């Protein structure tokens, strides 16, 4: 028979029926027959999937090893579990650091922005992603907590800051339990010094979120009626929020343009330092975790570094390490460390 191109007969194909298994299959069958099947670790495991039986076998065989592994490792006087060593080891191969005398700091303060929130027009809480961010931040902070160290968690009074502090507390306690370390972690507490920057309205001085609700209601009334002059405080808040609605940076405008009805950025920095002085006096030799808002954090970083380093991301932090004696401190933000003079609490004027 010729092929379809007419170039001669097509090759004949033969079918071969193999009665023996392929070589690789025969080897696999032989190994499976010679290998004894493991006995079930507990009654009723015969019907379980293979992966679950092996998981339980490893877990049961690791119980005795876990008891022996609970003995803490000790390196240079520091004791830790093997799990902690695995979670904190550096993945990069580097030369060992030079041994230098460690600086003596009176306290360390971490100013952390809240997690992703449901919105800024009302006093809303965190989204599920925001709660996860704060919990992860607390778990990461637990790796640097020394055994027996005291940690105080404070926050602003808003819902998003409170929930961030709560999740940081849960993350730190979960991490310490995982690393088998004992530390004194205080329950989160709101303090007035960490509040967001304030706005002066006819109802008094309040944060920018509460002023937004009053601004929105009055602005809608004036636009609907189209009569009357707008008060000056309403004009300034309208400038602030229209900057945000236009896609620009309202915090940059607050930092650079004098706003008559807004709390100045330098006042927020003074207020933060008053709170830090009070916390250090109430809780000496205590590490402080402060959950607050992006505007005052950015003003604090701008004051320390001498330029605007940009908006902090959710749960991003500014680290303040105050030297023993309280005269100077190191402020670290986005890979830059600046030495600053700590302002005395009795020399700072008040805005409110």
Task: Record the SSE blueprint.
Layout: H1 23-34, H2 50-69, E1 73-75, E2 78-80, H3 82-88, E3 105-113, H4 128-142, E4 150-155, H5 159-179, E5 184-185, E6 189-190, E7 198-201, E8 204-207, H6 208-225, H7 232-245, H8 250-256, H9 265-282, E9 287-292, H10 294-305, E10 317-323, E11 328-333, E12 336-341
Parallel strand pairs: 3-9, 4-5, 4-6, 4-9
Antiparallel strand pairs: 1-2, 3-10, 7-8, 10-11, 11-12
- Average per-residue pLDDT, rounded, comes to 82
Percentage of helical residues?
A: 40-55%
Number of helices: 10
Content of β-strand:
15-25%
User: Span from first to last CA?
Assistant: 104 Å
Order of helices and strands: HHEEHEHEHEEEEHHHHEHEEE
Low-confidence stretches: none
What class do helices, strands and sheet pairing give?
alpha/beta
- Overall shape: it is extended
Major beta sheet summary: 8 strands, mixed
- Write down how many β-strands occur, each being a DSSP E stretch of 2 or more residues: 12
Rg from Cα: 32 Å
Provide the descriptors you would attach to this structure in a database record.
alpha/beta, two-stranded antiparallel sheet, extended, 352 residues, 8-stranded mixed β-sheet, 10 helices
Describe this structure in words.
The structure is a single chain. Helix content is 41%, strand content 16%. The chain is an alpha/beta fold and 352 residues long. Strands 3, 4, 5, 6, 9, 10, 11 and 12 form an 8-stranded mixed beta sheet that branches. The longest helix has 21 residues, at 159-179. The model has no long low-confidence stretch (mean pLDDT 82).
Give the structure's gist in a few sentences.
This protein is α/β, with parallel strands linked by helices. It contains 10 helices and 12 strands. It has helices at 23-34, 50-69, 82-88, 128-142, 159-179, 208-225, 232-245, 250-256, 265-282, 294-305; strands at residues 73-75, 78-80, 105-113, 150-155, 184-185, 189-190, 198-201, 204-207, 287-292, 317-323, 328-333, 336-341.
